[in-house]
Automatic annotation (TrEMBL):
It comes from Brevibacterium siliguriense. The lineage of its organism: Bacteria, Bacillati, Actinomycetota, Actinomycetes, Micrococcales. GO terms for molecular function: ATP binding; ATP hydrolysis activity; transmembrane transporter activity. Keywords: ATP-binding, Nucleotide-binding. GO terms for cellular component: plasma membrane. SUPFAM superfamilies: P-loop containing nucleoside triphosphate hydrolases. Residues 3-219 form the ABC transporter domain. This is Putative ABC transport system ATP-binding protein. The keyword ATP-binding applies.
Length: 219
């Protein structure tokens, strides 16, 4: 799996109509053996915005994005296909369907419809909450919801896992468990890009990048 961002820029329009550049001329590449990368940076520096571009959710950027050597472009169908087949994305706010069970939510992440249930149970097992499978997600704690979101992202065995502050709602012990899950996921061939404020999470990654001054820097 290779990911390459070349000269990528992203501007946003503030509520007062002012246009602000979050990043510009940003280069990023991920290739070779499965790798984990931490993206750190102040709140508001654009970490989530960058992950959304990588996830194929935001076509409104300048520059180029290549996945496995092919330009991703802005075609919605192509973006959806990329996301559906290759990318697991754990969003900062989990984005679960609140009126459905844990299992149903996780099954929504699995493109392999015929085996969705078995694979979803396996993912839930992996993050340690298989016993919650039939519980409605609106009855879960923040940490449990976070693990449902992680399980959902893993059911497809993605080529790359994008995780936005994936341990923000977890206690230290559960965080450690999830970091071990991420280590296993990487060993099984999936690269990981994680936006985090946690030094502990970052220290477990192969590379740490900082989003500062509208650029990604090594330190
Ligand atoms: N669609 C949008 N419209 C307007 N402002 C946005 C939009 N998305 C993000 N922002 C703003 O862009 C900045 C960066 O946001 P974000 O990418 O969420 O940063 P981070 O994840 O590093 O905290 C924030 O100031 C946020 O309010
Ligand atoms: Mg964020």
């Amino acid at each position: 799996m290779t990911i390459e961002l070349t000269s990528v820029g992203k501007s946003i329009t503030e509520a007062n109509g002012e246009v602000r550049e979050l990043f510009s001329d940003l280069d990023f590449s991920l290739s070779g053996v499965p790798t984990s990368v931490a993206i750190m940076g102040r709140s508001g520096s654009g970490k989530t915005s960058l992950l959304r571009i990588l996830a194929g959710l935001d076509p409104r950027y300048s520059g180029e994005y290549y996945f496995d050597g092919e330009e991703v472009g802005r075609d919605p169908l192509k973006l959806t296909r990329l996301r559906w087949n290759s990318i697991g994305y754990v969003t900062q706010h989990f984005d679960l369907l609140s009126d459905r069970s844990v299992l149903r939510n996780v099954m929504f992440g699995c493109p392999d419809r015929r085996n969705a249930k078995a694979r979803s149970l396996e993912s839930l097992e992996r993050v340690g909450i298989a016993y919650l499978a039939n519980k409605p997600v609106n009855r879960l704690s923040g940490g449990e919801s976070q693990r449902v979101a992680i399980a959902r992202a893993l059911t497809k065995h993605p080529r790359v896992l994008l995780a936005d502050e994936p341990t923000g709602a977890l206690d230290a012990e559960t965080e450690e468990h999830i970091l071990t899950v991420f280590d296993d996921v990487k060993s099984a061939g999936t690269s990981i890009v994680v936006a985090t404020h946690s030094d502990k999470v970052a220290a477990r990654c192969d590379r740490i990048l900082y989003l500062v001054d509208r650029q990604l820097r090594c330190d």
